[in-house]
Every structure is written in structure tokens, then in C-alpha cells.
From TrEMBL:
Belongs to the DoxX family. The keyword Hydrolase does not apply. This is DoxX family protein. Pfam families: DoxX (PF07681). It is a multi-pass membrane protein. It is found in: Cell membrane. The chain crosses the membrane at residues 15-35, 73-94, 101-123, 145-164. Keywords: Cell membrane, Membrane, Transmembrane, Transmembrane helix. It comes from Sinisalibacter aestuarii.
Length: 177
């Protein structure tokens, strides 16, 4: 009886976990990413604000005297890609469209964001925090570990049964029959 119950929980858990991860992301982190992306928009979709460069290239912008003309095309491309990634990747994750790829993209994005915070913005020890301490709310190590766990779950499990990925897969299977 217990084995049958555990088996049913495993089956339902495998179906529910990706949806719960996507809803958790939508409820807690999507707004964070979109608000951050909005701060990077300038006069148009391909004209980033000064703040975008300050967030992504803090040291280089300071060394250039906050004169954007001193930065190159590469800096512009990175800022544009980062800005649009902050819009697109969360949207894809919420829809469950290319879920694994979007989650993997967010892992890379947050890794670069973390390195920028640590190296470019000189995060202090209280912001960085420490694992295995009694304080679970540091902005970098603690919070981003939770973010990574959410993203890794979606990389491993995909979008789940209630996702655009599954809908597309069902249509492709039907069209092959």
C-alpha cells in the first residue's frame, strides 16, 4: 500500500514539479528580470540607456569617464543581448517554450550577473554572504543558489505537461501519424 502511494506521488510529482517551478519563477523572479531590463532601455529597443552600461560594464564605463563613445561595438552588443535576454528568457520559461534552453540561458545569465556583481561592482562580504551559516538571506550566495536550483530543475525536467513545449510535441506527433 505504501509502495503504491509512493509510486503515485512520484508520477504526479514528475508532472507537477516543472509547472510549480515555472509558477514559482513567475511569482518571484520574472518581475525582477523585467524591471531590470526596463532600466536598461534607452530611446529605443536598440539604444540602451547609460545605466545599462553602468550595470553590465561598471569598471569600463568608469574608466571611460562615463562617455559611451569611448566604448566599442562589442560593449553595445553585450548590453543589447543582455537586455533582451532579460525580457525573452523569463517569458519563454513562463510559457514553457524552449524551457530547457531558456533555463540554461538563465543559468548563464545569472552566472554572468553574479560575476559582474562580485568583480565589477565590488560586492562586500555582507552582500556576498556565506553558505552553511545561520543567515539565509544574502543577496548573492543564498538567493542565487535558490535561483539556480529552480533553473536546474527546469533544465532536467523540462516544462512539464502544461507547457508550450508539450503542446508543440503533441502536435508534431499527431502530424507524423
Amino acid at each position: 500500500m505504501i509502495a503504491a502511494l509512493l509510486s503515485r506521488l512520484n508520477i504526479r510529482g514528475d508532472a507537477a514539479l516543472p509547472l510549480l517551478a515555472r509558477v514559482t519563477f513567475a511569482a518571484t523572479l520574472a518581475g525582477y528580470f523585467w524591471a531590470s531590463a526596463m532600466t536598461k532601455l534607452g530611446d529605443g529597443p536598440f539604444s540602451p540607456a547609460l545605466g545599462a552600461y553602468a550595470q553590465i560594464f561598471p569598471r569600463q564605463l568608469e574608466a571611460a569617464g562615463y562617455d559611451l563613445s569611448q566604448l566599442g561595438v562589442w560593449h553595445w552588443m553585450v548590453v543589447i543581448a543582455g537586455t533582451w535576454a532579460e525580457f525573452a528568457l523569463p517569458a519563454l520559461l513562463i510559457l514553457g517554450l524552449a524551457t530547457r534552453l531558456a533555463a540554461l540561458g538563465l543559468i548563464g545569465f545569472v552566472t554572468l550577473q553574479t560575476l559582474t556583481d562580485l568583480i565589477g561592482h565590488h560586492a562586500d562580504a555582507s552582500t556576498i554572504g556565506a553558505w552553511f551559516d545561520r543567515v539565509p538571506d544574502s543577496l548573492i550566495l543564498d538567493q542565487r543558489l535558490f535561483w539556480f536550483m529552480l533553473f536546474v530543475t527546469l533544465v532536467l525536467k523540462g516544462g512539464g505537461p502544461l507547457s508550450a513545449d508539450r503542446l508543440i510535441a503533441r502536435r508534431l506527433i499527431r502530424s507524423e501519424m
